[in-house]
Write a structure and sequence with these properties.
This protein has 446 residues and is mainly alpha-helical. It is 74% helix and 0% strand. It has 18 helices and no strands. The termini are far apart. This is Putative sodium-dependent phosphate transporter. It is a multi-pass membrane protein.
């Protein structure tokens, strides 16, 4: 088995587990909160919608804060240490949520904050390893491994709905936390920062990888990120801006999907979990298809930059239009069909702007991803804040239409800078002690 395929499986399963642990509460909180007329029960809490929004949103506040720390830590300590310890901390917090909830919602907020910071380190860490392990011709396909998070979301919602319907909400957190801890034991045994560190890689595969990445990879772990150059780079900025729109859409589906399914479409908790999660299962398959097609197009002579722009458009413009259609339709089947298509299309971003990060900075993909995610992941808490400001009555289709319409506008408007100013060549600051040349596009030039 090729060592880089093992890395693919570790990346895929790692993001699957990570998103199980971060999203379990999105559906569990539906059962954790008591209805106004419900008598007191020890496992039900009278939390306001604002308290619920804080519990769900605080994860993402700290997630954003952690991005630059993740890029710096990965350059210093390597992917294996940063990703592994981050996952272990997140798993430990999941196991403690039931106890914390019974004490005070503030303790749940604290645990979600730790989870958010720890999870914020994972993406820069995994991006950093791609430049060393994956030849350029395989990178779009490898990016589909990041879509393990779609399977994580897709499995979490129906699994949690099934568990809650039988045993209540506390076992949800024990289950996801235990799975996370088990995954960590595999990661420490099988993950390595560089191909040359791997004790079981074949000489043929090692030589092939090193020859394929030699032109782009110079320096590496321990190389100091040139943050000033990254901050002044137009290609880095347009990636950050356009993915802000995609993340806005994505978190409207993730965070408000179960609420919309329950209060507007009227599904019970078990069916809610199934229907909220199923589109994300499909989205992994769509990611594999999109990333495979992207590599095929590049291999058949289509310009890499054009490929990135096409798939970025599919990931934002198409679901941006569909989410507005969801709000305008009162037909359950039509809503579910549009929901499935929209969530599936969002994954095209991993053959578009998200893969573009490695195109422009294979040597510093972790720090550039940290820079981009600091900006675009702010949508993960701005979007729910904006939606909660608009949607005062979760049964009101008119209010949901306004919230979804805002998501449409954000998704389309943020795509336009990418369409104009994106690049697909390594930037000069990707290399240590390399003078500026035409491959670098400074922010001032736009």
């Amino acid at each position: 088995v090729p060592a880089r395929f093992v890395l693919y499986l570790l990346s895929w399963s790692g993001f699957l587990v990570s998103f199980m642990m971060r999203n379990d509460i999105n559906i569990a909180i539906v059962e954790m909160v008591a209805q106004p007329e419900e008598p007191w029960r020890p496992d039900r809490f009278h939390w306001s919608f604002t308290v619920r929004a804080i519990i769900l949103g605080t994860f993402y506040w700290w997630y954003v804060v952690a991005q630059v720390a993740g890029g710096v830590a990965t350059q210093r300590f390597g992917t294996k240490a940063v990703f592994g310890w981050s996952q272990l901390a997140t798993a430990a917090c999941s196991l403690l949520v039931p106890t914390a909830a019974r004490a005070h919602f503030g303790w749940v907020v604290a645990l979600r904050s730790v989870q958010g910071f720890a999870s914020g380190l994972t993406w820069p860490a995994m991006y950093a390893v791609v430049g060393y392990w994956i030849p350029p011709a395989e990178r779009s396909r490898f990016m589909s491994s990041f879509q393990g998070f779609s399977i994580g979301i897709g499995v979490t919602y129906p699994l949690c709905g099934w568990i809650i319907a039988r045993w209540g909400w506390p076992p949800v957190f024990y289950t996801t936390g235990a799975i996370g801890a088990l995954w960590c034991s595999l990661w420490w045994r099988l993950a390595f920062n560089r191909p040359a560190d791997h004790p079981r890689i074949t000489e043929k595969e090692l030589r092939m990888i090193e020859e394929a990445v030699a032109e782009d990879i110079r320096g590496g772990y321990g190389m100091t990120p040139c943050w000033g150059a990254i901050f002044r780079s137009a290609p880095a900025w347009v990636i950050a801006v356009t993915t802000f729109g995609r993340i806005w859409l994505h978190y409207m589906f993730i965070m408000f999907g179960p609420v919309y399914m329950n209060d507007v479409l009227g599904f019970d908790i078990e069916m809610n979990g199934l229907l909220s999660g199923a589109p994300f299962l499909c989205s992994y398959l769509s990611a594999v298809v999109f990333c495979g097609v992207a590599d095929w197009m590049v291999g058949h002579g289509v310009a890499l930059l054009l490929v990135r722009k096409i798939f970025t458009a599919v990931s934002q413009v198409v679901p941006g239009v569909l989410i507005l259609g969801i709000a305008c339709s009162n037909h359950q089947v039509a809503v579910l069909v549009m929901w499935f298509i929209a969530v599936s299309c969002i994954t095209a971003g991993y053959a578009g702007a998200m893969a573009n990060i490695i195109d422009i900075a294979p040597n510093l993909a972790g720090p550039v991803l940290a820079f981009a995610q600091t900006i675009h992941m702010s949508a993960s808490f701005i979007a729910p804040f904006a939606a909660s400001a608009i949607v005062k009555d979760t049964h009101s289709t008119e209010q949901w239409m306004a919230a979804f319409g805002l998501a449409t506008a954000v998704a389309i408007v943020t795509y336009l800078p990418y369409l104009v100013w994106a690049q697909a060549r390594p930037q000069a600051w990707n290399y240590r002690d390399t003078p500026k040349d035409d491959a670098e596009t400074p922010l001032q030039s736009i």
